[in-house]
């Protein structure tokens, strides 16, 4: 690179990046790895999930920790900024709230995509840690004050009343929140998707360009830490109440939409529905219940934001304008499918929290409803997004979804209605 190319100097090399022979993962390291017995009744019988790269012989999973951020970790090692031998110091990192264990944790059909013991590894696997096994929590539980303009507005308009316990006069809501990384038990994931474990392993290997050879060479390793985003749950009220079906639970399961959730784009209802759910959760907690928002990192129906923006253009440039009757078709033209969120794995986090009943589900999605009830969780009332919260440009989305089977207490739009161009053009 020429000197005037404006390049940024790499960080000083404090650790030696990869040197010497390549450390292949595709053959058994053999001695020293602890066994995982998925869904065993106790942590000791289940065994720890060890995805460390520092002691290869101790690894008992495919992949590494931190989901998609494992790639940044590799970059940090390559740049010499991170020692590959760094071991996490877990002092004072324990969860702020006790969650579980619950009966669902040892039911092999209830949880296949996260480690229910993932928040308490430093506690339940203290002996293994002391013996030199390098293990990382895959779940972290903490507390926060969340301050949202929509909640402050609800206070100003008198819809919400600060109580000093769940909602402060400043408009801050007090929450317990948990971040959850994906931990896939491959036989269980295959069962959820009605395919064979062999096919699942082969397709995961081939469709990631051969990223994890162990998927096809190490059938003895049944747990995979996939390089994808996980979930964050926000709990309004006492986390222990989530598992008590006699306590009213208001819950929303929300899939990431950066454009609306963070930047306020008005082409969809994501942020208004999310903040409405938070308002409902606060109301629920104040009534003596508990509230939950589970936020899954599945941007743009898990198709990614590039695909999503391509679809927006295709919708708005098509002959006849942006209409509800072509809403799903335009996605399918670009992506090959209408949706890749596959709600089959979504209820796992609800089972980790011990949930048996959701009294008020703040979602109109039939796919989410079917996945939750299909996993054995009872759902009472379904709460739609109030009409006045739907942005004008998002009318296309909501009409298309209600016509396709989403829950609505109102009328379902007919064919003529669906053919009307309701979305704005690209030039405003
Ligand atoms: Zn959205």
Automatic annotation (TrEMBL):
One of its GO terms (molecular function) is GTP cyclohydrolase II activity. Residues 237-383 form the GTP cyclohydrolase II domain. The keyword Nucleotide-binding applies. It holds the Pfam family GTP_cyclohydro2. The keyword GTP-binding applies. Its EC number is 3.5.4.25. It is an enzyme of class 3 (hydrolase). Keywords: GTP-binding, Hydrolase, Nucleotide-binding. Residues 21-207 form the GTP cyclohydrolase N-terminal domain. PANTHER family: PTHR47259, URACIL-REGULATED PROTEIN 1 (PTHR47259:SF2). This is GTP cyclohydrolase II. The lineage of its organism: Bacteria, Bacillati, Actinomycetota, Actinomycetes, Mycobacteriales.
